[in-house]
Each structure stands twice: as structure tokens, then as C-alpha cells.
Amino acid sequence: MRTPEQFKEKQGIDVFLRHRVRRLDPRAGRIEVEDIDKGETRALDFDKLVLATGARSRRLGMPGEEAENLFTLKDLGDGIRLKAYIDREQPKRVGILGSGYIALEMAEAFRTRGLETTIFYRGTRPASHLEPEIGDWIRKELDEKGVQFLPEHTPLSFVRNGKGKIVALETSKGQYPLDLVLSALGVVPNTEIAAEAGIGRGETGAIRTDEGQQTDHPGIYAAGDCCEVYHQILEGPVYMPLGDVANKQGRVAGENAAGGKATFDGVIGSSCFQVFSLQVASTGLTEKTARGKGLDVGVQNIEASSKVHYMPGAEPLLLKIVFERSSGRLLGGHMAGREGVARRINTLAVAVQSRLTVQSLSKMDFAYAPQFSGAFDPILIAAEQALKKL
Amino acid sequence: MRTPEQFKEKQGIDVFLRHRVRRLDPRAGRIEVEDIDKGETRALDFDKLVLATGARSRRLGMPGEEAENLFTLKDLGDGIRLKAYIDREQPKRVGILGSGYIALEMAEAFRTRGLETTIFYRGTRPASHLEPEIGDWIRKELDEKGVQFLPEHTPLSFVRNGKGKIVALETSKGQYPLDLVLSALGVVPNTEIAAEAGIGRGETGAIRTDEGQQTDHPGIYAAGDCCEVYHQILEGPVYMPLGDVANKQGRVAGENAAGGKATFDGVIGSSCFQVFSLQVASTGLTEKTARGKGLDVGVQNIEASSKVHYMPGAEPLLLKIVFERSSGRLLGGHMAGREGVARRINTLAVAVQSRLTVQSLSKMDFAYAPQFSGAFDPILIAAEQALKKL
What we know:
Structural class of chain A: alpha/beta
Strand content of chain A: 25-35%
Shape of chain A: globular
Strand order of the largest sheet of chain A: 6-13-7-8-9
Oligomer: homodimer
Helix content of chain A: 10-25%
Radius of gyration of chain A: 24 Å
CATH architecture of the largest domain in chain A: 3-Layer(bba) Sandwich
Number of helices of chain A: 10
Number of domains of chain A: 4
Largest interface: A-B, 49 and 49 residues
């Protein structure tokens, strides 16, 4: 990694590490930054500004969240601290609050280290932002791999010992002794500086931008987990703090701050992750989101083999497609399986973004070899089945 | 497997195994079939007929091709015979004529059995129907795995011993001693019955059909390796004998013979295969084919990592996209690599068939997780690089 000095020399950019923004004055084009170590404050003038203040872990606001054995996982430092604590204190029972990407990926990490791992979740299935059918597959994977998933267990309070350490979690369905808690309840955007400066936020609570990543203050841009993103199918802003989205927004914001005319077209909600050996991938709208938008929704669920059944490594795969019944337009695709899932989803991502119908999708010419797919790819099978529901 | 009797009982379909069609009379709606074992001939009347006569291995027409140690590989029986011969005769040196899918897959099979394996090819690179850049990657894989690839070696004649067995191959660049020859020079459609009956064939030599798989004789359909297929980007018929295409044509022909109105939209040339650990996949036009069509062609080659470089199993991947410079329209995509290739190609297949431009492709929202892809998928990187060439 380069030092700030090397970076400046190479790029001509000043870098202030361990500095905190105290105040932003959009009209004057000035920020005040404080040197955290020295306590000194200085003012810096700007012509253009990019806000990339990111997000932070969401907190329950329950007493005990400051306990030394409660962790969140947002950045590398969090991970290093958590790992060091486990190495030092050798906890046996871990409780995870939440059931999204981080909760599930960390359940695998804890279990792989041999810890007794329990997920406490107020909902009924893991990854509740995805299709319930996918959630059922994840649940099965957790069960098989020895992670306890406790649905409809709403955290109520932490039980602490005399030293303030959490020793148990009180939930809506009883008390569970724990040695370590991971709070994985998602993130909230860091918008305090923007809010104080009067920069507009959307209904999502994140900073609102136009397609050039400019905020409602000319010359001030925002990118990444601190801001909203336009959803092409929902036709409105959403808060979707994902790494690749942040990356793309950052490039657009940077280019425009430097005088360019770049635009970011937004997202359709493509994502993938893995929990143990189960790959999960999703693009476009879920059935629920599509119905919420008032569309005439059809769905098609299929189970198929990831490749021709006689080939080594063939695994069952779940595919659910969501479409508009009146037009046949594909709205979303959702998959789970141990093989051939994550790299397949972008085929559906292009189809959704190209506004393809299931009629067209069912006629696609896909590459076929038995070690990679059946003569009819699962996507073709699902699309063809869907035709009967139009 | 069911016996013909069981099949008839179950499906109400007569099956004549070991029968040969002697004559087809389209006007009378009659075929004459001969029982191969008994030598008896009988006439069968039909209202509708589906020709699915397939293809056979192409022959060089060189003396010695009938030798007991020369094999072709078209069906399961060929494979069983070849395997039995190797088990029995223990050949040491195998020569392969040709350099397509079968030649390359069989090179792997021979090498895996420990045989000295040499590919003799009149061209310069393996898989010459694909991009030369892909051919170079295949060549490298063959070299690494100990298969000798001899380019510009045109087979001239076989040297045979007193028993008629091939002992060497005479080529345009010298003589090579061999114990076994695999002739893998592609296939030619079986169109004799159709030709004698006056059913039309196209310039490719294969049976011509309309989009309902009907030949130029009403009520007579054709499907599979015996017939042509419409190429959506070349906008004309091609001969592309592939399993998944045959499967789709067969369904359409069968449905229409039974009174339906199915259509087959044709292909864009999607295919994939594997040679040793190298996956190769292709969709749409190659640079050469696109130029041959007189298009204003742009290409973009990139090498990228199949997933984020720090993830275990990340492998370099070659991606070449072909596009029309004037419009940006994506015409084809071609990939090679040891990981994450075959399942990625259909993303480009949908893009080509949806007539997407590289401009649109570069803005797609793809699913990202570091174990599956970089924050910018190789496809996005290639599309973005291509923008500079429009």
C-alpha cells in the first residue's frame, strides 16, 4: 500500500489520513477537517466535492451493544478485531443477529472454526430480501452444516455479567447463553455531514443524486454506500449498498467532478453470495417486489440439474423466474444450488435489462456441452414452462 | 432402455429397429423399408414424415481408411469399438486427423490413458473455426498436457503393413509411425434418401427446411444433423450439427408433424467444450465471419481474472468480443480459460440475440461477489474498452 506521500507524488492528490470532517459549507466551497491525533482543525477550499462517507453497521439500540464481546462487521478492522478476540478468548457459543449476506457468510466462518453457531432472526427464513424458495434452500444448507437457525426469535435484551460482558440473549422465544454476539443487521448510510450542510436525502435516508452522481448542490457529488441508486425496473431510487455499485458510482462521480459527463444508469438488483457450498444469485425483482409495484405477476419455479445428470459434479439447482403475465416481460430471476449458479445469473441479468420476454428467452441459442449444462439450459426450461402461464 | 414392444405399448408408436429405408416416395406418401437381418422389404404409408437421418463422419477418401486401426467417432458404438481395440491391442502412438471438438476431446482422452498423442492438422491452429486467439490458448494447453500438435501437416497417405494395418502416416511434412488413427474431420449430412426422393438441399449440402422444419415437400419434415439451420446474424442457412440444435429441431418437427404450429428461430452459433482443464466457449460471429459478411468490424481482446485475484482458484481468462463499429452492435463473444468460462458465455449469447450494443453492455448490472467475479466482470471490462473503438 502506498503512503499518502507516495500517493501525492504519483497522482498529485493530497491525502489526509486520520482526519475528520467537522463541517461542510457547500455555498462557500469549504470544508473544515480535524487532525484526529493532533486535534488541530484547518479549512480547505474546493471547487468540486465528492462525498463518499459510506455506511455503518445498523444498531438495535439495545443496552449492552457496547459490550466487548459484541461485534459488527463492516470493514477490515472489524474483521481483524473479531478474529483476535476469538483467538484470545476462545468463545464456544456464537449468536448472530440478522440473516443477510454478512450474517450467513459469517455463520459459515464461525462454523468452520468449530464454534457452536446460532442465527437469531425475527423473520421466518434466511435472506428474507430474496425469494422464500431460496430461503428454504439456504435454511436446509445451514441445517446440514450444523448452524442453528432460529426463526421468529426477536432479540429483546442482552444478559450481562458483572464485567458488562454479554452472557446470554433474551429473545421473544426464550433466553440463550452466548459467549460472543455478531450483530449483522445491515447498514445505514453516513449522511450526517451532508444533512448538516443541507444536502438533500431521499426517502431511503441516503443522499439523493442525479444520474451523474451530483447531489442537489451543484459541484457536490456523492457515491457509494452513503447514497441512493436508481432502480431501473422499480423506476425510482433505492438504497442498495453493494461493492460493485459503489465502484461504478465512484468512477462516475470522479469523472464528473473532474469536468466529465459520465452517467450511471442504475441497477436492477443483481447480487450473489455463497453460504457453505450453496451459491445464491438473484437479479431483477422478486415476486413480492413485483406484486408490490402492482404488476400482473407470473412466476415459474423449476428444479433442474446444473449439468447433464450423468456428468460428475451435477447438482440440483433451483430457478425461479418472475415475469409480467400480460406481456411476458421478464422481471427477475433467482437461483440457488451448489454448482453453476452464480455465473448463470448474469444471463438473466442481461435478459431483464434488455426487457426480454419469456417468449424470446425460451428461444435463445445457448452454448451446450454436457459438463456445463443440459441440452436445454435450466433458463430455457423455466422460460418455456412460463409460456403456459401467459 | 425400452424394447420396441414396450415403446409401442407405452407410446402407441411402431419402432422398426435394424430396418433400412430403401426408397422414399413423397408424392405417394410411402416408404419402403428393408429388414436388415431377414432381407425382407415392406411398404409403409405415411401422412407426415420426419427425416432424422443424421450425419456420418467425413472421410478423406484416402486408401487405407478401412484399416482396422483407423477409427472415427460419431456414435456410442464407435466409442465402444475404439475403447475395446485399445484395451486389446495396447497401441502406443495415436495420430489424430483434424482439430475440431472431437479431435481435441479425444486427444485428452488418449493422453489421459497414457498414449503418445499427435494431432496432424493442415491449418495453423487448433479449432480453426474459432478465433485465432482462442486457438493459441488451446495450443498452449495441448503443449502443457503433452499432446503434440503438428500444424500445416496435411495427411497424404497411410503406410500399411502386409495385413493392411496402418503403421505410419505420410504427411506434407514427413512420415510419422503410428499404431492407431482417429479420423476426426467433422461430419457430412446423410441426405441420400432425401436426394433420391427429390427433396431439396441447400448450398451447405444439408436438407433445406423452413422455420417449421418442413422440407420443400409439404408434410415432410427434417430435423437434426441431416438438415440446415438458420443463422440469425448471418441471416441465412448454415450447417451446424450440434446436439442441442438437433434436439430443438426435433421437437419442432415432431410437433408440426402432429398438426402443431411450432417454429424454430435458428441459432447464433453458441457452443462450448473443454480440452483438459481449458474451457472454450463461443457465441455469435467470429471476427473473420463478421468481416466475411462485409460488416465494419471492431474487436476487443482482454485478459482478465475469472474472479477477484486474491480468491482461491482465480484463473486468467481470455475474452474477445466482436462488434459493428458504426452502431456498436455486439456480434459475437469468444472465451477461453480454466475457470468461469462456459457458464459466462450465455450472458453474451443473450446480448447478441437481443441486438445489444457494447454501449448498453458496458452498463449492465451484474451480480458481484469476489469468489465469482471482479467488481467489474470481464464482460463489462471488454465492453467498456470497446467503446474507445467506436
